[in-house]
Amino acid sequence: MKKLLMLSLSLALTLMAFTAQAETRLTFATGGTSGVYFPLGGAIAQVLTAKSNGALSITAQASGASGENMRLIESGDVNMAIVQNDVADSAYNGTAPFKEKLTNARAIARLYPEYLHIVASKESGVTSMAQFKGKKLSVGARGSGNELNCRQIFNVFGLDYKNITPIFLPYGQTAEQFKDRQLDGFIFTIGTPNPAIQDITTAQDVQFIPLDAASMDKIVASFPYLVKDQIPAGVYKGQKEAVPTLSVQAILVVSKDMPDDVAYTLTKTLFENLPDVAKAHNKGSEISLEHAKDGITIPFHPGAEKYFSEKAAK
Fold first, then answer.
1. Number of neighbours of residue 257 by Cβ within 10 angstroms
2. Taking all residues of the chain, what is their mean pLDDT, rounded to a whole number?
3. Under a CB-based contact definition with an 8 Å cutoff, are residues 22 and 57 in contact?
4. β-strands 206-208, 227-231 pairing
5. CB 145 within 8 A of CB 189
6. CB 268 within 8 A of CB 308
7. Closest to 247 (Cα-Cα) out of 271, 219, 270
8. Do β-strands 227-231 and 165-167 pair in parallel, antiparallel, or remain unpaired?
9. What sign does the dihedral 89-91-94-97 (CA atoms) show?
10. 180: pLDDT strictly greater than 70
């Protein structure tokens, strides 16, 4: 009996050790607690942990979002992160605002688009980008990804910081000044629907500024991580038609040091359980295999590529 008990205990300990070895624990950097990245990241972490048959255990944590997340991946402090694709491109290539190349990140997939919302007050009379000349235009916080997007598109429309009055404010302060009629317009790079814009359109009439196809083609040729897109009709009060614009992409990245089998399991589990992600967060409904590679210019992880290749072969 004693030998049998010892054998049973030995088997139990062996099984526990095997389970511990089989489970891969990952830390997932998301964004600020008031943004989209944090709750969506939490939803993804929850689903991947629950649906991976014990292979993954993922803990989501708040962070300073894209720029900080690329640095956290580079230093090895986290295993995976949500990052804006243009920020990932700048970090990987060591272009402004990054002073050196951060090359440890590898893409898993595009998650959802963040549209350039170009909005003017009715009083301004602005109906096209070129008409912002001489106007007060909020371009986002100085040095932000939002401001970077503004500088990327301005030249095509003959705009620069000399012929407009650039206002460098974050989203919340921009919305307040716009409602107080202190601004002629603003540009937000953000997912839909944006609560600040919903609040504005409830209080006053605005003009959503469309981008023409030829101009967008020129911009995308220079900045391939930007995608020709449109804000769907009816997202905001008074916005009855779709608005042609550009979008950047919120993408999922991991460390290049993540084993291929782990990255494969992560990718497979995500795409085979998208309804569960969508139930946990509405942005999950925008994740799709069809658009998994949209706007991504950094290398994909081999584990993700293996999954996409398998799906393409079917």
1. 10
2. 91
3. no
4. unpaired
5. yes
6. no
7. 219
8. unpaired
9. positive
10. yes
Question: DSSP for the chain?
Answer: -HHHHHHHHHHHHHHHHHHHHHPEEEEEE---TTSSHHHHHHHHHHHHHHHTTTSEEEEEE--S-HHHHHHHHHHTS-SEEEEEHHHHHHHHHT-TT-SS----EEEEEEEEEEEEEEEEEGGGT--SGGGGTTSEEE--STTSHHHHHHHHHHGGGT--TTTSEEE---HHHHHHHHHTT--SEEEEEE-SS-HHHHHHHHHS-EEEPP--HHHHHHHHHH-TTSEEEEEPTTSSTT--S-EEEEEEEEEEEEETTS-HHHHHHHHHHHHT-HHHHHHH-GGGGG--STTTTTT--SPBPHHHHHHHHHHHH-
Domains in the chain: ranges and CATH: 25-113+249-313 (3.40.190.10), 114-247 (3.40.190.10)
- What residues contact 112, with CB distance under 8 A and at least 6 apart? 191, 249, 250, 283, 286, 287
pLDDT digits (tens, 9 = 90+) for 92-120: 999 988 899 999 999 999 999 999 999 99
CA–CA dist 302, 256 (Å, integer): 9
Q: Is-cis flag, bond preceding 170, omega within 30?
A: no
**Which structure tokens are listed for 299?**
């290398």
**CA count, 13 A, side-chain hemisphere, 176:** 4
Q: Any idea which residue has 């950047």 for tokens?
A: 248
pTM as predicted: 0.79
Which residue is it, tokens 């779709």?
Answer: 242
pLDDT in tens, 228-258: 999 999 999 999 999 999 999 999 999 999 9
First to last CA, the chain: 54
